[in-house]
Specification:
By secondary structure, the protein is an alpha+beta fold. The chain contains 17 helices and 16 strands. Bound molecules: iron/sulfur cluster (2 copies).
C-alpha cells in the first residue's frame, strides 16, 4: 500500500491527512507568519494574564500554607486555600466532572476557543516560544531561509541563543510545575541542595524540563492536531450551530485575485491572498471549512480583516460564527443540546455547592474495636470498646472532645489514657474509648448510640454506632 502523499493529494485530502504531514510522509515544519491585529492584542492580554497567574500561584500562601497544591504522592490537595484529603475524593471527582461538562458546554457553544485562548500549550507556544523565535530569527520567511541555509556564523549564533533561551524557559517551567505538585518550599530546598540529596526530586525536575523543551522546541502544533484527546473529540462535541472561527464562503466565493483598480465583477470577497493560511499556527486553510486542527486562535480573522480593509470590503469574511449562521445569514441560537448541557451543569454545580457546605473540617470515623464484644464490670455496667479515627483537614491544631448522645441516662464515655484528643494541623489521629451503660437500663442486645465530636465546644459531627450487651434487660 502506498502511504506516501503527493503535493496534489495533500491539497485535496486535507480532512484525512494531518496538516503537519508533508510530501513523502515527512514532517512538514510549520512557519506561521507573525500575527498582529485587534484579536491578537486581546489574546495577548488573556494569555499573559493567565501565564502570570500560573507562575505566581505556587508562591501565594495563606497563613504560611500554599494557596494551591496538587500533591498526588501524598494525596493532599489544596484549592484556593482549602485542604482536601483522600476522604474528599468524591468532591474532587465531582469538581472534575463539572469541569468536563463546562468544557463540553463551551465546546458545543464556542468550539475550540479554550485551545486558542486559555490552553497552556497554546499560550506557551504562541506567546512565549514563538515570540522568541520571531525576535531572534525574524518572521516566517526569514526563519525558513535560515533553516535551509548552510551553517554560517550568524546561523550558529542565532540557533544557539534561541535554543539556550528555550532550555532556560523549559527549566523554569519545570520548576513551576513541580511547585504545584510538592509546594514551592520543597522546590526551594531542591534548588539549594545537592541533587544527590534529593535524587527523585531532581529526576522529576529533569523530566519536566525535558518534556517542556521537547514539546515546545520540537513537537509543537502536533500536540494540538494529533496528540491532544480533547482536540480529537471536536467532531463529537461540536455541531453546525457551534460558534467557531469560520470563513464566510457565501460571501467569499468564488474567490479570485484582483488587480489594482479592477472591478470585482462576479467574484466573491476573498481575493485569494492566502494570508489567512500563512498566519495559521496549525497550517490549515480555514477556507476549506471547519477543521479539527483549528484551535480558534483568531490569527486568520486579523489577517483577513486587514486585507478586507485594504480592498475596501466589509471586515468579517473570516469571523466567529456558526456554519448555520453563515449559510442562513442568521445570528447565533442556543440548540437543544446546549440547553441540555446547561441544565446538567447547573444541577452538578448545585450538588457540588451543597456537598461543599456539608463538608466537615474534622472528619471522624467511630468503629467498635474488632474482636471485642462487651465487658461486664463489677459496678454493674456493660462496656464496649471503640476506636475513633480523626482527620484534621485544617491548618490549625484542634482539641477534640467526645460526648455521648443516647437514650440511656446513666451512659458514660471514657477515653483510654487521655482526657482530650489533640489533633495536629493536617494530620490524622486515633483514640480508643469505652462507652459504659448500666446493665439495668439496656433494652436490647444491640442499641443505637451516637458519639458527638466537639471542637472548642462546637459540635462538628455526630457518628452513629451500636452498643452490644449480653441480654436485654427484662423488667
Ligand atoms: S485572508 Fe481573506 S481574502 Fe485573503 S485568502 Fe484568506 S479569506 Fe481570502
Ligand atoms: S484556522 Fe484561523 S483560527 Fe484556526 S488555527 Fe488557523 S489561524 Fe487559528
Amino acid at each position: 500500500m502506498n502511504t506516501s502523499y503527493s503535493e496534489e493529494e495533500l491539497k485535496q485530502e486535507f480532512r484525512n491527512i494531518p496538516s503537519t504531514v508533508g510530501e513523502g510522509n515527512k514532517r512538514k515544519w510549520i512557519y506561521p507568519k507573525k500575527p498582529s491585529g485587534t484579536w491578537f492584542k486581546r489574546r495577548m492580554i488573556v494569555a499573559y494574564s493567565l501565564l502570570a497567574g500560573f507562575i505566581i500561584l505556587p508562591f501565594i500562601k495563606i497563613n504560611g500554607n500554599p494557596f494551591f497544591l496538587v500533591n498526588i504522592l501524598d494525596r493532599k490537595f489544596i484549592f484556593f486555600g482549602n485542604i482536601f484529603w483522600p476522604q474528599d475524593t468524591y468532591l474532587i471527582v465531582l469538581a472534575g466532572l463539572i469541569l468536563i461538562v463546562i468544557i463540553i458546554l463551551f465546546t458545543a457553544v464556542y468550539g475550540r476557543v479554550f485551545c486558542g485562548w486559555t490552553c497552556p500549550q497554546t499560550i506557551l507556544m504562541e506567546m512565549v516560544f514563538r515570540r522568541i523565535e520571531y525576535w531572534i530569527e525574524g518572521d516566517f520567511r526569514q526563519q525558513k531561509k535560515l533553516n535551509e541555509s548552510p551553517w554560517t556564523r550568524e546561523k550558529i549564533i542565532k540557533k544557539t541563543v534561541k535554543q539556550s533561551l528555550f532550555i532556560l524557559i523549559s527549566i523554569f517551567m519545570g520548576h513551576i510545575v513541580l511547585a504545584y505538585l510538592v509546594g514551592i518550599d520543597e522546590v526551594m530546598v531542591l534548588v539549594s541542595s545537592s541533587p544527590l540529596d534529593h535524587i527523585w526530586g531532581f529526576a522529576s525536575l529533569i523530566a519536566f524540563s525535558a518534556t517542556f523543551y521537547l514539546v515546545f522546541a520540537k513537537v509543537r502544533e502536533i500536540v494540538c492536531t494529533v496528540i491532544c484527546p480533547y482536540g480529537r473529540l471536536q467532531g463529537v462535541l461540536m455541531n453546525k450551530e457551534s460558534m467557531v472561527v469560520a470563513y464566510d464562503n457565501v460571501r467569499g466565493e468564488p474567490r479570485g485575485k484582483i488587480k489594482k483598480g479592477e472591478d470585482q465583477g462576479s467574484k466573491g470577497d476573498c481575493v485569494d491572498c492566502t494570508l489567512c493560511v500563512q498566519v495559521c499556527p496549525t497550517g490549515i486553510d480555514i477556507r476549506n471549512g471547519t477543521q479539527m486542527e483549528c484551535i480558534n486562535c483568531t490569527a486568520c480573522i486579523d489577517a483577513c480583516n486587514d486585507v478586507m480593509e485594504k480592498v475596501n470590503r466589509p471586515k468579517g469574511l473570516i469571523r466567529f460564527d456558526s456554519i448555520v449562521g453563515i449559510q442562513n445569514k442568521e445570528g447565533f441560537k442556543f440548540s437543544t443540546r446546549v440547553i441540555g448541557y446547561t441544565i446538567v451543569l447547573v444541577v452538578l454545580t448545585g450538588i457540588f455547592g451543597f456537598l461543599m457546605t456539608q463538608r466537615s473540617e474534622i472528619q471522624a470515623t467511630v468503629l467498635r474495636v474488632p474482636g471485642q464484644l462487651y465487658q461486664q464490670n463489677p459496678d454493674g455496667t456493660i462496656s464496649n470498646l471503640y476506636n475513633v479515627q480523626l482527620v484534621n483537614k485544617t491548618f490549625d491544631e484542634k482539641e477534640i472532645q467526645l460526648s455521648l448522645n443516647s437514650e440511656y441516662s446513666g451512659a458514660t464515655i471514657e477515653l483510654v489514657g487521655e482526657t482530650d484528643l489533640m489533633l495536629n494541623p493536617q494530620e490524622t489521629s486515633e483514640g480508643v474509648f469505652f462507652v459504659k451503660i448500666p446493665a439495668g437500663e439496656l433494652k436490647g442486645m444491640k442499641s443505637k448510640i451516637s458519639v458527638e465530636i466537639y471542637v472548642e465546644n462546637e459540635l462538628i459531627t455526630r457518628e452513629e454506632t451500636t452498643f452490644i450487651s449480653p441480654t436485654a434487660n427484662k423488667k
